[in-house]
């Protein structure tokens, strides 16, 4: 069963989940656990001959609804790894990616994200819902079928927690939303904008950690994806459909990335100081070069970007 252990040096929780060592690793294409179950074939995770968008609990979860309380060593702090880990299959097709899906399917996927944020966030003990996608073997993906994941945490993870704290300090000092003001500055500067529409702005941030990192902000203020209107969902689907193919066209192949949705904790959905947004972290720093998190990044926590954000934004804009 998953267990939480507290790091007293960094003041953050670590998930200990040894059962994940048994998860499926790069199965053959003729038997993908995330494809529909074909007539006469071994049953997959989805026991139907087809589906639209499928959501189910991960068989090898990092957090579990049934996690039992654990006993700590003397002087150490631990807790049961209670939570929910879900898999979201975007399409029954194995040979595609999120970037190639039509806008209408992306729109329906956003509605699924909304539904899961609301339902998982309403569970007792859940404080944060993280929606994300790992794409590409370079990221460590073990199943290549187009899918994402959703983790419902019993705590607010460190990175969103730092963002939330920064946003509150900024609001206290300036009386305005940090993210709204960043979007306005990026709009004025224009040099790092990758694409935009009436309601959303995609840009390489001034402080980009990764060479081709992109942030996608709504131009309107909203703390979480659950409060989007149908019109705002449609425009979000449209901007994702414009942005994601740029990663594919950049070097002529499906660029690996991590896509993560940062939003307000489910216990503070009315927070006026926070602003939901997407962040994309591709590991490539060139067509045949990867960005590794080595001594400075992993040991000191300080990123070194080997490129200039304005130049990378131009490359993506032109892709």
How does this structure look, described?
This protein is of the alpha+beta class. 27% of the residues lie in helices and 21% in strands. It has one domain (24-59, 83-318): HIT family, subunit A (2-Layer Sandwich), CATH 3.30.428. The N and C termini lie far apart (45 Å). It contains 6 helices and 14 strands. Helix 1 (103-121) packs across helix 4. The strands form 3 sheets. It has a 9-stranded antiparallel beta sheet, sandwiched between helices. The model has no long low-confidence stretch (mean pLDDT 95).
Q: Give the SSE order as H and E letters.
A: EEEEEHEEHHEEEHEEEEHH
Number of domains: 1
Quantity of strands, as a count: 14
Average predicted local confidence, pLDDT: 95
Summarize the model shown.
Helix content is 27%, strand content 21%. With 319 residues, it is of the alpha+beta class.
